[in-house]
Structure formats: structure tokens, C-alpha cells
Design a protein that fits this description.
This protein is mainly beta and 159 residues long. The protein has no helices and 15 strands. The chain has a 4-stranded mixed β-sheet with strand order 6-5-14-15, with no helix packed on it. Strands 11-10-12-13 form a 4-stranded antiparallel β-sheet, with no helix packed on it. The relative contact order is 0.21.
């Protein structure tokens, strides 16, 4: 059991139970990360991308991966794999016009709730002895909402 900026976490040895591959499972192999398919749900459903490929891959793209950057580790040896959402000017997700984007990224801070882009964590990466340990945050598909107040920056909500 431990504590991090998002609260408490608990881990334990895996048993021989059923295999449950929930959306946004983060896998580290060497210095690269892959994320299993998941969706951000708003006015439409969008699968995050890495580069220009959906995180789960598709018929024309193999499943992409992020190259981990050790400069994105904080004082506690933590880094984060996150989903970032940049909506269009109306706060909507737009697939056809490509004026909004949903991406999976590595960051040194897990949350951004104001400004043009919102961010929510999928997993914490702990840098240990030159390698990476994944502390998965169990997520289902994200419900994304945004509000643009009359005064001040846009606010992002991930439910």
C-alpha cells in the first residue's frame, strides 16, 4: 500500500483468476509504453492516438508505443502516462474537422483541469534501478466534459 498525489494505491500478487483486460491498461517493455484500447466519450467517442495511430492500432497501423523520457520524472521518481484532450472552440470533440485531438502522452504531472487541454492519468510509472515499474490506475472508458466560463480558462472534467 502506498500514497501518491492522487491518493492511496494498493497492490498485491496476481492470483489464478480470470484475465480482465480493462481499457487503458499500460504496459512497459524496456523504454517503451503501450496502452490497450480505450475510449474518451463526449458528444462522440474517440480513441486516443500516439503519433497518428490509435492506441490499440488498426488495420493500417500496428499498435503504437511511447518512448519513455527520463527527463519527465519528478523528485519522487514518478512519471505518468496520461490521456490529453484538446476540444474544439465549442468544447466538443470533432473527428471530421480534426480541430480537436485526444492523445496518450507521458508527463511529469498527472492532471490538467484548466486551459486549452485537459489531462487525466492512466498509470504512474515509477523509475527504479534504471527501469520502470507500472502502477496501473484502473479505468474504464472516460466520460469527458468541458465548461468555458465567461471569465477564465476552460475547465476539463474526466468522469
Amino acid at each position: 500500500m502506498g500514497r501518491n498525489p492522487l491518493g492511496f494505491w494498493m497492490g498485491g500478487p496476481g492470483g489464478g483468476g480470470a484475465d480482465f483486460r480493462h481499457p487503458f491498461t499500460v504496459y512497459v517493455v524496456g523504454g517503451r509504453v503501450r496502452v490497450s484500447r480505450g475510449l474518451v466519450l463526449a458528444n462522440i467517442a474517440m480513441e486516443p492516438e500516439i503519433g497518428n495511430a490509435p492506441i490499440g492500432g488498426d488495420a493500417t497501423h500496428a499498435q503504437p508505443s511511447l518512448t519513455l523520457d527520463v527527463s519527465l520524472v519528478d523528485d519522487l521518481n514518478q512519471s505518468w502516462v496520461c490521456v490529453e484532450v484538446t476540444p474544439d472552440a465549442d468544447g466538443k470533440l470533432d473527428v471530421k474537422g480534426k480541430t480537436s485531438k485526444v492523445v496518450a502522452v507521458q508527463r511529469d504531472h498527472p492532471i490538467a483541469m484548466t486551459g486549452p487541454t485537459g489531462r487525466a492519468p492512466l498509470a504512474m510509472l515509477l523509475r527504479k534501478a534504471g527501469g520502470w515499474q507500472v502502477l496501473q490506475i484502473a479505468m474504464f472508458h472516460f466520460r469527458y466534459e468541458t465548461v468555458q466560463p465567461a471569465n477564465g480558462p476552460r475547465r476539463h472534467f474526466f468522469l
